[in-house]
């Protein structure tokens, strides 16, 4: 069992970690998303450790209280009759010891619960952020990439109808794996302008990837499953992944913020 002193040290350490996490920009990881996921994991681990240490400390202090109570019940009789003054002194010390242990039990439990509540609040805040901005649970490109924030521009290419660009172009080396950014169903298609295409449909919408060189795993996939490879098929002039985001199956919206969060800028 850990002593109350070790518990206080743990609480202090958690406080320092929490302050550091709060002050540290999550972008110190490869991406903002990875930073928040790492922080959430640290917070969860710390909560579990605090709960375990609280239980150990409570058990230790309760054992101390029980031992003091047992001694108080055992000393009357011959000891009290033979030496009343010594009996009074021993009894006073044991009562004080029991009171101190009781106060420490209440105080340590309250302090740990306050820390746990603060960490749980932080975890809820992270979960809310992830639900809003972490829609792409992983970067769609496994390897070097450069994201062009070119949603909505007018595209004019030879032999291609003038059209509005409905996604972001992610430049990457030919053959770089393209992965599902979230759990869903991956289906393939092809067209004159999109070349080889893969759509991944999840609970909150679908992503459309175009210009692939070849397909990967199709059907039901998990986030991070390779669904294809970067190419330049269709009307592409260089190897890249044209990615569109269609929330709840509706019209395309600019995916740049979500890509920046999951891939880094």
What would the keywords be for this entry?
265 residues, 2 domains, 9-stranded antiparallel β-sheet, alpha+beta, disordered N terminus, rod-shaped, Glucose Permease (Domain IIA)
How would you characterize this protein structure?
With 265 residues, the chain is of the alpha+beta class. It has two domains: 4-133, no CATH class; 146-263, Glucose Permease (Domain IIA). It is 48% helix and 23% strand. The chain contains five helices and eleven strands; from the N terminus they run H-H-H-H-E-E-E-E-E-E-E-E-E-E-E-H. The chain has helices at 4-23, 32-74, 78-82, 84-133, 256-263, and strands at residues 146-148, 154-157, 160-164, 168-171, 177-179, 184-191, 195-202, 205-215, 219-221, 226-230, 240-247. Strands 1, 4, 5, 6, 7, 8, 9, 10 and 11 form a nine-stranded antiparallel beta sheet that branches. Strands 2-3 form a two-stranded antiparallel ribbon. Strand 6 (184-191) and strand 7 form a beta hairpin. The longest helix is centred in the middle third of the chain and has 50 residues, at 84-133. The protein is rod-shaped. It starts with a helix and ends with a helix. The model is unreliable at 1-29 (pLDDT under 50).
